[in-house]
Amino acid sequence: MPAARAFAREALADWGVRGRADDVVLCVSELATNALLHGVPPGRGFLLRLWLLPCGDGVRVEVHDSGDGVPAVPLESGGSDEGGRGLLLVSELADKWGVAEREPGKVVWFECGVPAD
């Protein structure tokens, strides 16, 4: 997910957002990875959108994909399995997150309060 991380980091820098930028970029990486692994058929991509919230006191990120199903935070985070922790990270780092329907597929989004410098 280097391209998604770079896009997010550049947008945040352009907006003068420094606080929690690493959290936002990590969440972008996790959602983009999930979209590629679980949300799009081979050969298809996903849409990544970032924007400042009204009053400029936060950022909203959306990852649109064409996959079905509703992602959920795993009930247990233990064990040695490396997968399944992306949404757990997003749920811990973001102020809010959720899933919305779209045709086809879904939008997984999060918001973080990140005041501009």
UniProtKB/TrEMBL annotation:
UniProt GO BP: negative regulation of DNA-templated transcription
Recorded GO terms, molecular function?
A: protein serine/threonine kinase activity; sigma factor antagonist activity
- InterPro entries in the record, alphabetically? Anti-sigma-factor_SerPK, HATPase_C_sf, HATPase_dom
Q: Can the keyword Repeat be found in this entry's annotation?
A: no
Q: CDD domains of this UniProt entry?
A: HATPase_RsbW-like (cd16936)
Domain Histidine kinase/HSP90-like ATPase span(s) in chain numbering: 2-110
Name the Pfam families for this protein.
HATPase_c_2
Say which domain of life the source belongs to. Answer: Bacteria
Note whether Translocase occurs among the keywords: no
Query: What Gene3D superfamilies does the record point to?
Result: Histidine kinase-like ATPase, C-terminal domain
Keywords for the protein's UniProt record, in alphabetical order? Kinase, Serine/threonine-protein kinase, Transferase
Protein's UniProt name: Histidine kinase/HSP90-like ATPase domain-containing protein
The source organism is Streptomyces coelicolor (strain ATCC BAA-471 / A3(2) / M145)
Q: What lineage is this protein's organism placed in?
A: Bacteria, Bacillati, Actinomycetota, Actinomycetes, Kitasatosporales
